[in-house]
Structure formats: C-alpha cells, structure tokens
Amino acid sequence: MKSPKWLVHLLRILITAAAAFIVVRMIRWNDYWIVISQESAKPTYHDGAEIRSAEFVTSHSCRVTWSDGRVADVWSAQRREGFLSLFARTNKPLFFAMMGALLVPFYLLAVRWWLLLRGHGFEAPLGRVFFVTYAGAFFNNFLPGSVGGDLTKAILAASGEERKAAIAGTVILDRVIGLSVMIVLGAVSLTPEAGFYWSPLGDRRLVLLIYGLLGAMIVGYGVYFSPPFRRLVRLLPFQQTVAQLDEVFRSARDKKRLVAKAAGLSLLAQASGILCIFGLARAMGIPDLSLAKFFIFEPIIFIVTALPISLGGWGVQEYVYQRLFGDFGGMDPNHAIAVSVLYKLTLILVSIPGGLLFALGAARRRELPKATP
Q1: Is residue 354 part of a domain?
Q2: Which of 31, 98, 181, 210 lies in disulfide reach of 266, CB 3.0 to 4.6 Å?
Q3: Measured distance CA(97)–CA(91) in Å, rounded
C-alpha cells in the first residue's frame, strides 16, 4: 500500500529540517579551542572565551589557563578561528565570487553522472540529475565521507526503478572515474616537482603515495578484467544483482568513449574546484601561494576525505591540509588549517539550497530513471 502523498512530502520536509539543523550546528561561527587531555586522546571543543591562554611547555605538554583562573596541563590546546573571524579578514568580492563558482563543479559532476545514466539505458532529465547531485552534496555534510552523498544519490535515483543495482552501479562507476582522474591529476601535477621531493632534501613519502596510488589503480583495472577474476564473478551469489553491477563496471573497457567523456568532465570539475579553493586562499590574503601545489595536494585531500572516516570529513580534512600544505608545501600550518575550515564552511553554505530543493521535491522521481527498451 502506497503512503499518502502528503505524508511523503511531510517526511521529506522533516528529514531536511533535521539535516539542516545538524549541518548549521556543525558550523562554528565563533573562535574556539580544541583541547586534548593527557588522559584521553579524544578532543574536546571549547568556546574561544573559555580559555585565556595556552602555552606549550614541551612537545607533548601544554599549560592551559582557563577564563576563571584555573591552570591545567593538557596534551594539546589549539585555537581555531570560526567562520565570522575568517570571513572578517577575507576579500569579500572574491569570497562571494568563489562561493558562487563552487556551483560549477556540482553542475559538471551532475553532467558526468547524467552521461553515465544515459549510456546505460536510463533516460534521465539533466535537471533532476543535477538536483539529486546537489541534494547528495547537502547530505554529504553530516554523513561519513563522500560515501554518504553517493548513498543518498543512489537511493533517490533508484526509487521506483526495477534495475536498482544498475543505478547503484552508475553511482559507483561515477565515483571510481572521479577518483581515478584525481590520482592521475595529482601524478601529472607532481611530475615537475617529483625530483625535489625525491632528493635528499625532500620527503619521498609524497612521491611514493601519489605514484603508488597510480600503480594501484592500473593494477586494479588489470585484475578486474583478468580471466581469473571474470570466472570468480560468475561464481558469486546473487547473480542478478552482480550481473547488473558488472555490466556497468565493464563499461570502463567496453564503452571507452563514454568513460573518456566522463573522465574529461571529472577533470574540468576537479580543476574548477581546486581553482575555487585557491581563490578562497587568495581571498584570505595568505602569502606566497603556489597554484601548482594546490593541484598536487588537493587530489590527495579529495581522496582522503572521500573515505568514511569522519562525519563530513571534519577533523580529517584539517589534519591533511596541515600535513600537506604545511609539511610539504611550506605554508604556515595555521594558514593551511584556516583554508580548510573556510572551504568546508563555504561548501556547507553553498550546499544548503540542495537540501531545500530536496524538501520541495525537486529531486523526487517523476519519469526518472526509466530504462529504454
């Protein structure tokens, strides 16, 4: 028995309202402190006014003076700027220009998925594919990694469709193509700098990481299409589901033109996204920025934050920014973290309309997806 339409609409609005409440609560508007005690490795967050000062006594000990005069020794205490402080010192016209420009990667990614859907027999209106992608970006803010957004996209697109596994397969293939292009982009961008990082003065870990990912991608492709693995696929249970997924994944070899178009859109989307982040860093007035390093480091950051490690990538993204831009890029670690925080908060603000569109039913199924005979 189908639920009444009004009940479905109400449920959708309630889900969006709850999600929006969580997302807005995740935005730290004011300055704050991250404190890690010596008894527990779990960080605690405190309002900026709660702590008067913090001074490192040793590399693993920090003395904190609280606003009420109490003094305590902790493992670490770091002050972070909230959105209002970060926004106050940004170039406002450039900031708002980059904020609007972040919609460009969303649109390009929607076109990429739309091509994959059409290439596998689903007549998908581009407008709805964009709304589903935009809604997925909104739910990505409080779900683990980018996997949460992909799951949202798969659920929304597969509603009412018989070939649900095939729809899910296009979402997975869409993600794999994006990750593959990120790895190649990082490897190509690193090549001119590889000699330095491999030298005695550099850190070889960056070269090993990026080229290791490139090698793993090539090996994975070879293994998937190898005769032994093809035989294993035919022995797996749930053959109907496996067959639908495998049909989509095999397009990486059987539909090279389609995959090439999707890869090209991935490159444009990622390049435009990186340029937006670089623009945000410029808007903050961070000195001595190198665009080349953004093209080296950002693909790695995209890959790491895509993993379902933390909600919305919080914590993980700041750490990776600090390590890559600080340790490898020569940027002040505080500036690197500030770029990460401003980018994440800007992304949240830009994606909130995606949640509103979901609440209004823009992403609901009408005739999509409908398989062609």
Answers
A1: yes
A2: 181
A3: 10
The verdict on pTM exceeding 0.85 is: no
Per-residue pLDDT tens over the stretch 140-182: 776 665 666 676 677 766 665 677 888 888 888 998 999 899 9
Residues 169, 108 share a domain: yes
Tell me the CA end-to-end span of the chain in Å, nearest whole number. 28
Do residues 39 and 103 share a domain? no
Question: Which residue segment(s) compose the domain that 51 sits in?
Answer: 32-80
52 and 124 assigned to the same domain = no
**What is the distance between the alpha carbons of residues 334 and 89, in angstroms, rounded to a whole number?**
14
d(CA 237, CA 231): 13
* Average pLDDT of span 240-254: 89
